[in-house]
Design goal:
The chain has 307 residues and is of the alpha/beta class. The chain is built from seven helices and five strands. Helices cover 27% and strands 7% of the residues.
Length: 307
């Protein structure tokens, strides 16, 4: 029987695969065995470019001692394998501008460096408590004093903090009761905490409150507990007619009856003889009162009052 002479056909090509591996038509061509095919000489170098000597390809290095096996190559027709994902580093905290506050502690009495001149209250970090009846001008003087200092200064008003309570606000106009007393004490503690945070960050503060001399434990005693012994109290006490006139210009829940204003003013008169500095601003405007406040504070820094 005769057989067809010639090279056998290659295996059929399948989609998704490369050329048949190991298939060589010469391997099935009849004839005498041949040696390795001669390597053609390299082409001459292009003129003007240096050449390097040809070297044999370096053997593929195996895995280093102590390392695992290398990743195998991708199969024909498949994409390259993804390298192993390294463990992610810990996330970097976001920069939000938050500055940790130093712990607020009781404010100590300001230390006065030895000097012949009086201390300058406009450049010293201070905590001031401005005391006075309704209509004495505490809020106006405190704002002006804080606005015109040469160092950072905050104004903290007890009445403003009390009015943070919206629903359920205990209005003093309806009568002083346990609810208004509780909100008053809560506002005082909040003001004290705020003052200590400001002072711990180098910001002076001035607080205003109607503190009565016949309630030393709740009044000055409470401020000393919440702020510290370095608090400098100053009493602002104009005449009764001035207080009544200024109260008449108020509106909302801060306007009191004339009877209530007269009663509060009479109780404030107990500050005379207490040892605290008192400013009668009956004939002074706001800038003049703030200037006089600086003079009083300068004496209080040099010789703190005993309270």
């Amino acid at each position: 029987m005769q057989h067809a002479v010639g090279s056998p056909l290659p295996p059929p090509h399948q989609p998704g695969h490369g050329p048949a591996v190991g298939w060589s038509p010469a391997a099935h061509q009849p004839g005498p065995p041949q040696g390795p095919a001669p390597v053609p000489p390299p082409p001459p170098p292009a003129p003007g470019y240096p050449t390097a000597p040809l070297r044999a390809p370096a053997p593929h290095p195996g895995p280093a001692p102590g390392q695992g096996p290398q990743q195998p190559h991708a199969a024909p027709g498949q994409g390259p394998q993804q390298p192993p994902v390294a463990p992610s580093a810990p996330p970097v905290p976001e920069t939000t501008g938050h500055v940790p506050l130093p712990p607020g502690g009781p404010v100590a009495v300001p230390s006065v460096p030895p000097a012949t001149a009086a201390p300058d209250p406009t450049t010293t970090t201070l905590a001031v408590l401005l005391i006075g009846p309704a209509g004495a001008g505490k809020t106006s003087v405190a704002k002006y004093w804080a606005d015109h200092r040469r160092v950072p200064t905050a104004h903290i008003s007890l009445d403003d903090v009390r009015e943070w309570v919206r629903s359920g606000f205990a209005d003093p106009q309806t009568g002083w009761n346990e609810h208004s007393e509780a909100q008053y004490r809560l506002a005082r503690r909040t003001c004290g905490f705020s003052a200590r945070n400001f002072l711990a960050n180098g910001i002076s503060c001035i607080l205003d409150d109607a503190v009565f001399p016949d309630r030393p434990v709740v009044g000055l005693g409470g401020w000393k507990r919440h702020v510290g012994p370095g608090l400098l109290p100053v009493v602002l006490l104009p005449g009764l007619d001035i207080v009544l006139e200024r109260n008449a210009e108020r509106s909302g829940n801060r306007r009191l009856t004339d009877e209530e204003v007269a009663r509060i003013h009479g109780r404030m008169a107990g500050w005379y003889g207490s040892g605290l500095p008192i400013i009668d601003n009956s004939q002074l405007d706001v800038p003049e009162t703030a200037h006089l406040l600086d003079e009083v504070l300068s004496r209080s820094i040099a010789s703190p009052p005993n309270w």
